[in-house]
Amino acid sequence: MDLGLKDKVALVAAAGQGLGYGTARVLAREGARVSICSHLEDEIQAAAASLIEETGGTILASVCDVRDPAAIQAWVDKTVAEWGRIDALFINAGGPPAGAFKELTDEQWKAAFELTLMSAVRMIRAALPHMRAGSAIVASTSSSVREPIERLALSNVMRAGVAGLIKTLADELAPDGIRANTLLPGRIDTARVAQLDQARAAKLGISVEEVRAQSIAAIPLGRLGTIDEYGTAAAFLLSPAASYITGATLRVDGGKIRSI
Predict the structure, then answer these.
(1) Distance between CA atoms of 142 and 212, rounded to whole angstroms?
(2) Whose CA is closest to 104, among 157, 144, 180, 57?
């Protein structure tokens, strides 16, 4: 199936590794021109080199801390200066630290607000003036939007806010022909999931392997997802092939989320 992404201009945040990298890789394979960012210069330059080698695609790399409004604007401006427009925006950011409600400080709440919710607001605000009818926004959130995850109070609250933002924008942007959807990763094989597994193992006093086995046992498909499987779903929602899908929430979770 041709997704119609050839020569489209896509912004992919936090693309140095994990879900962002997987999304950028699929977009590049589909022929899109992909502008990627990360807050780590070595990481994003290495990711760009790998993406070019793997896909032969056109990649533009930028250093951008998504907690910094000026950095987001600079990333968008650089992309538009290079390619003249934005057709697709993939909103993504590293997750807030784990912790139960009673353990969290005001400073941690404020930091999570900037990292997870305000980064989404600012990316959309910066990109919208350069988007036209047929463009699309996808926000990567978490399965916690449907089922709160133990000891992830910050993520549970802030990612739900992002989901509310995207649903609101689906209505507001529809008259302009711009779509907005939310993508929910379940247990995808990323460094973030490995980090959370390690934290849970330490809390429970068991091995990481036992924690991972427990997680996999709760997934009907019986395994973790891959970043390419997630990236394929993201690329579809960002593409003209999904032209009548907006305001939707798509789960990429192997069946793990139990709610209907």
Answers:
(1) 18
(2) 157
User: Reading across the β-sheet that carries 58-63, which strands appear in turn?
Assistant: 58-63, 33-38, 9-12, 88-91, 136-140, 179-185, 249-252
Residue 199, pLDDT score = 83
Q: Given a cut of 90, is residue 203 above it in pLDDT?
A: no
Burial of 128 (0-12, 13-18, 19+ CB in 10 A): middle
| C-beta neighbour count of 215 within 10 angstroms | 17
Segment 143-181, tens digit of pLDDT: 999 999 989 999 999 999 999 999 999 999 999 999 999
Contact, 139 vs 96, CB < 8 A? no
Q: Which residues contact 255 (CB under 8 A, 6 or more apart)?
A: 219, 220, 221
Please name every residue paired with 252 in a beta bridge, in sequence order, or none if there are none. 185
